[in-house]
């Protein structure tokens, strides 16, 4: 098991920078000494400080890295959250004394001003204090123990006796400086050469500039006016503007506190107060809303109305919504002094002072927009981009969280990802995942780092092929349901007429049986197969149709291909071959002697014609139907065993349907023609090391299958339906190394003249010694098929879905249907619904517009994972490879 401390430092740095706040870091630092070096890094805390500056809207130069130590960073980061916690806990107090917050320490600044202090502003961040006296304006560095220098003082142009009526501070566009606006004598304002905007009919309460939305906003006691900021800034000549009209005019709805939807009696401008919006905070971010303080003269209470401003993405039209209402205690309109709001730990802190007793109050309320971190742009400071993540993080994201299509889109849209997205390790990982999902043949010898585009195609092909099949499966007409190959080529060898062929999952290797030999062909290669990939067959007499059994499966370790060939069912000759792709060598597997004959000692009538046999690992399993026997041959240890099945469980005409081997649950399953599943312990079978017939070998579990009509699948159907039921050849290759979840049964319903696919799931009860339970899970109406007209039939996996493939004898047309592998139709009490398709996707075996090469019927083998189909030509002397995907630009 991988422990957290085993993660690379880059991973931990990413977690610390993006997932932990300051409190979490302190707690982790106190509890985990192993992370002390990472959590005690000044760089780590400095990065956290930069994030806090953006989030809280603090003045960045207040935190000089040259002056701040590790403890200073920790205090600055922890302070907002702890202050909010203090205010909220005290705010909830029951008595007046409980709601008082006392300072923990106090100190006098180590200097005196030369005149009376009139007004002052403490800038966000708490380091710089701007003081206005009667003779000068002074900026004080609170962290310093020295008096302000002359450069930090600016004398007033006029002697001020009364308190200045206007005194504001805001940071510059690049956030490196702060600016102060002082109106020393309000009377001068009327004669100054300013741009003046005329407005009639209402009292102006507040002016706000939204630099992000480029809006100049005027709040009145009746409406909110939105002007185009860029239009105002484009005016380069001072003077009075007569024809500047607002772009948008929105009413300001002030409702009753008890029912905000009902407008209250309009209050006079003297009774409506705006909290001073945090101009500093909204200098470099969009204004999410505003707070309106209203003293209700009837109730003698003061309320805070919070409004949210949102903009239409297409037209840019603003809309104003009331989002919060708060009762503000200890405040009366006639007694209020200073009033402003600040952001602290992402919340809004309202602050006001009472004139009658000079008491200072504060209250915490949620901010209109809870988290503005994603909308911050700050001067020359860059937000964190995805490319700033460590390489290890991106490899983790690419390998675990993105599918191949996302990676290709990322590669095409962002050149900076070329080195990462073209990494061989990444695509090897993705290829292994695809191989696991669809259980394709992927030996290590196939992993050639120079074949990166081949990797990409192999990874992307299953999803694209599945998409193509589903698109045509849902077509509105028959012509649209046809899938034509994009390219075709003839394999470069001709040695005898192909009798049977199998395209191994993955689409690279094709196993071909001709009358004289068996050959493994590398479909990727333009050269004929080497001699070591060919073997002469020992039985070359009789007709080609005598070769009725031809199976392939991977070896137990997945590195080789095993092939079972029955050259003559009459003679019962069974040969097992093994192909090693690392050496391109095909050899005959037989532990003791060549041309091994596996015969049931009691009967020479072996094997069947209904694809019942199974090759898995070192076992080849088949039936002796005339004697009701199951036969298992361990060809690596040359152990042959057989046992009889109770005739009560079988049909007398054709007793068996299919053998399934679940190597994960170690279960050996026989499906009889009466649709009864017999379960044996696989380990018990493989533990037998002596050949022979076992007189008594009863199954561990006997489970019947409910086989009903499509209209009522949970009720047993008529017996005649069973006579026209047959199994799709289960993807033996797939179930060699993965859990067997269920099986498919094709049924031609004679009364409805339709063919259905019944999908059953096998569940095991852990509380009952893994007793199996058979449930019908899916029901599909299969088009273009009837019970007397089906040729080859099998299913394959593709992008995690099951692809059913069949060929019609009447016209040699090949069809496919996609259906889910993981079933979700088990909730209905009446059974699963019937999934109907008007057309199955027809896999046309000639290129569009070239029907002269139409093949009426041939030996076909289809691999949807690679999008390739191999089929014989009319003369039966060559094999054509059709590619339905082509080179799709990877």
UniProtKB/TrEMBL annotation:
InterPro entries tied to this protein: F-box-like_dom_sf (IPR036047), F-box_dom (IPR001810)
Coiled coil: none
Domain spans labelled F-box: 7-48, 389-430
Pfam families associated with the record: F-box-like
Name of the protein described by the UniProt record: F-box domain-containing protein
Species, as recorded: Panaeolus cyanescens
